Amino acid sequence: MTTRAATPPPTAPPRSPGAPPRVLAVAGSDPSGGAGVQADLKSIAAADGYGMAALTALTAQNTCGVRDVHVPPPEFLAAQLEALSDDVAIDAVKIGMLAGADVAAVLDAWLRRIPATVPVVLDPVMIATSGDRLLDAAGETAVRGLLSRCDVVTPNLPELAVLLGEPTARDWQAAVGQGVRLAARARLHVVVKGGHLPGDRVPDALVGPDGTVREVEGRRVDTPHTHGTGCSLSAGLATRFVREGDWYRALAGTKAWLTAALAAGADLGVGQGHGPVDHFAAVRTAVHDGGTAPVGGGWQPARAGAGVPG
Ligand SMILES: Nc1ncnc2c1ncn2[C@@H]1O[C@H](COP(=O)(O)OP(=O)(O)O)[C@@H](O)[C@H]1O
Ligand SMILES: Cc1ncc(COP(=O)(O)O)c(N)n1
């Protein structure tokens, strides 16, 4: 590997009003495009942000499961992060799969060198929708250590339980109670997510470090295609926060967008397991039907062979 000395950081220009927020995803790769950095970049773009990505790990996975994980040397993550922050002003950071403690330590050191005002959203990815582990046991402890440099953490219910060292909540009230305990202990905002509980309602809640709980109502989309929902929510949240300046409004907007993306996911026809959401459902509708067609089933893909001659 060739390395070169870091150039002194330029005076990064502030974001001009109306320009897309420059959002960095620090996460793993999912070649099926539904989770990981691929989902993050789509979510950032769908929220009108400019997406950037530093890779922590490469997975060999599809919609059915994770076959293998390759973690490059942690120094290479450091090189990616330094190359970026030496040059680009970053408006928000979203953290996803960290794989292990060494990777988390590199990221922790870098996060403490960038301006403390840069908002950081942590999705503490531990286990994929398919049930495969994406973080080792030492990594769990390291992720807890990262919380002190994060503004928001977005665990699903099993991840919330691991972060607290408690059993997984079985109902919404217990889940919110755990969110309140984690927010107070780690002094940050916790997004508690109802996706893993049964029922027609799928609420999320923003819990503040002072114990305030503000719920965002949601209806369940009856679909198996939930691959990457956690990645998509956290990346969209980081992006919307830059414009909104308010975590609750950013969460409400992101959840509304994600519900529509979940509803349209089945029409993508990607894979045979838990397929992805359609991050661009709204854009697709606008492009194909002048914005008048319902999302999903409103247009048909071109006939096979009817495309541009190769
Ligand atoms: N079937 C569903 N219908 C509507 N919203 C859902 C559904 N499943 C998950 N969500 C939402 O997707 C987001 C991610 O939640 P969750 O699936 O719990 O995270 P993770 O991907 O980390 O397991 C949350 O906002 C949650 O409320
Ligand atoms: C590289 C990578 N990162 C994260 C997830 C979690 O995805 P989900 O949101 O479905 O739990 C994943 N499957 N792969």
From TrEMBL:
Its EC number is 2.7.1.49, 2.7.4.7. Residues 7-20 have a biased composition (Pro residues). It comes from the Bacteria. Gene3D superfamilies: 3.40.1190.20. Pathway: Cofactor biosynthesis; thiamine diphosphate biosynthesis; 4-amino-2-methyl-5-diphosphomethylpyrimidine from 5-amino-1-(5-phospho-D-ribosyl)imidazole: step 3/3. InterPro entries: HMP/HMP-P_kinase_dom, PM/HMP-P_kinase-1, Ribokinase-like. GO terms for molecular function: hydroxymethylpyrimidine kinase activity; phosphomethylpyrimidine kinase activity. Keywords: Kinase, Thiamine biosynthesis, Transferase. Transmembrane segments: none annotated. It catalyses: 4-amino-5-hydroxymethyl-2-methylpyrimidine + ATP = 4-amino-2-methyl-5-(phosphooxymethyl)pyrimidine + ADP + H(+); 4-amino-2-methyl-5-(phosphooxymethyl)pyrimidine + ATP = 4-amino-2-methyl-5-(diphosphooxymethyl)pyrimidine + ADP. PANTHER family: HYDROXYMETHYLPYRIMIDINE_PHOSPHOMETHYLPYRIMIDINE KINASE THI20-RELATED (PTHR20858:SF17), PHOSPHOMETHYLPYRIMIDINE KINASE (PTHR20858). This is Bifunctional hydroxymethylpyrimidine kinase/phosphomethylpyrimidine kinase. It comes from Isoptericola haloaureus. The gene is thiD.
